Amino acid sequence: KAGVTQTPRYLIKTRGQQVTLSCSPISGHRSVSWYQQTPGQGLQFLFEYFSETQRNKGNFPGRFSGRQFSNSRSEMNVSTLELGDSALYLCASSSQNSYNEQFFGPGTRLTVL
Amino acid sequence: SQQGEEDPQALSIQEGENATMNCSYKTSINNLQWYRQNSGRGLVHLILIRSNEREKHSGRLRVTLDTSKKSSSLLITASRAADTASYFCATASSTGGSYIPTFGRGTSLIVHP
After folding, report:
1. Closest approach of chain A CAs to the CA of B56, in angstroms?
2. Which of A12, A76, A95, B65 has a 20 to 30 A CA-CA distance from B15?
3. Backbone dihedral angles phi then psi of residue A85, each to the nearest 5 degrees
4. How many Cβ atoms from other residues are within 10 Å of residue B77's Cβ?
5. Shortest CA distance from A55: residue in chain B
6. Dist. CA B34–CA B15, nearest whole Å
7. Which residues contact B27 (CB under 8 A, 6 or more apart)?
8. Across the interface, do B42 and A105 touch by the CB < 8 Å criterion?
9. What pLDDT score was predicted for residue B1?
10. What residues does B75 pair with on adjacent strands?
11. Is A62 helix (H, G, I), strand (E, B) or coil?
12. Residue A83 — pLDDT band, cuts 50, 70, 90?
């Protein structure tokens, strides 16, 4: 099976802009979770989608949003970018939920200037 | 604050030696997982241990779980240069019906050839 793919791999934006990141889970996986990884805060959970519904949400502002399509592909959107949003954004898929083994994509490195 | 905290933050050993890293957590858990991350890339799942298990093995990996002390340890035996990576523990906790997976800040392991 193909692994989790994320696009784009690298992105440079300026403050105030918005960005959309994409994640394609492993075929058959219905759970997709998003994480933000920074040197200062470590790996933090953003949200999880399952069958097109947000099932769990971390402690991030409303500027961070996501959605999942019927084919389980997911997108994450960040509006009104701030310098502090610079991070590695990781997507992970699982067959059931993030209680179980998660398969991570390579990540999208977002730099906000 | 992070649910899981790894110790030590950094570990430097010679090839062939054993590496032990520890994880402490704060609340009751469903399971605990260990992941590996090579520099700036996605995480790779290593092993999952359930709250009713005390020890688990997978190849050169040995994981223990002590729920009374809220701690887990990961032992890598006969380490190799390819084991150089960051290692994270992840716990599953439920808050108000929501499930929030949390990761520690990781142990950075360097194995010298």
Report:
1. 15
2. B65
3. -85, -5
4. 14
5. B98
6. 21
7. B3, B91, B93
8. yes
9. 43
10. B20, B62
11. coil
12. very high
- At position B25, the amino acid (one-letter code) is Y
Give the minimum alpha-carbon distance from A41 to chain B in angstroms, rounded to a whole number.
8
User: Is A106 within 8 Å of B41 when comparing Cβ atoms?
Assistant: yes
**Tokens standing for A4?**
């989790």
Q: Given this model, what pLDDT does residue B95 score?
A: 63
A10 touches chain B (CB under 8 A): no
Contact B104, B39 (CB under 8 A): no
CB contacts of B88 in chain A (<8 Å) are 43
Residues of A in contact with B105 (CB under 8 A): 42
**Nearest residue in chain A measured CA to CA from B1:** A41
The encoded tokens of residue B80 equal: 């190799």
Per-residue confidence band for B74, with pLDDT thresholds at 50, 70 and 90 = very high
Among the partner-chain residues A4, A101, A107, the one whose CB lies closest to the CB of B48 is A101
pLDDT tens across B8-54, in order?
999 999 999 999 999 999 888 888 999 999 987 889 999 999 999 99
Distances in Å between the Cα of B102 and the Cα atoms of A1, A32, A66, A86 are 27, 15, 19, 20
Mean pLDDT of A73-78: 98
More confident residue, A56 or B76: B76
Degrees, nearest 5: CA angle B100-B10-B74: 60
The predicted pLDDT at position A78 comes to 98
CB nearest A88 (choices: B31, B40, B92): B40
